[in-house]
Design goal:
Layout: E1 2-6, H1 12-26, E2 28-33, H2 36-53, E3 62-72, E4 75-85
Parallel strand pairs: 1-2
Antiparallel strand pairs: 2-4, 3-4
Helix pairs in contact: 1-2
Length: about 90
């Protein structure tokens, strides 16, 4: 399973393309975001990715949000984790 890390400066269209590619390859992708700006870009990217991968015959994407503990420069941080599945 591929893990994508999204920052507040990330381009939602680029992240959406990465999500779509990971879904085509593995059927599931995990996305990590720390901070309000990064979460905002992540949610926008998931919405764009839905348009890229969903068809009328497919069931909708399943998105499971949750928390994750990450280490950034040796400091423990809490972030949001989005598990996106076909």
């Amino acid at each position: 399973m591929e893990v994508l890390k999204v920052a507040s400066q990330s381009n939602p269209n680029s992240v959406a393309g990465a999500i779509a590619g990971a879904l085509e390859q593995d059927g599931v992708v995990e996305i990590h975001a720390i901070g309000a700006g990064a979460v905002n870009q992540t949610v926008k990217a998931i919405a764009i990715a839905r348009r890229l991968v969903e068809t009328e015959d497919d069931p909708p994407l399943r998105v499971v949000p949750g928390f994750t503990e990450l280490s950034i420069q040796g400091e423990a941080r809490t972030g949001l984790r989005f598990l996106v599945e076909r």
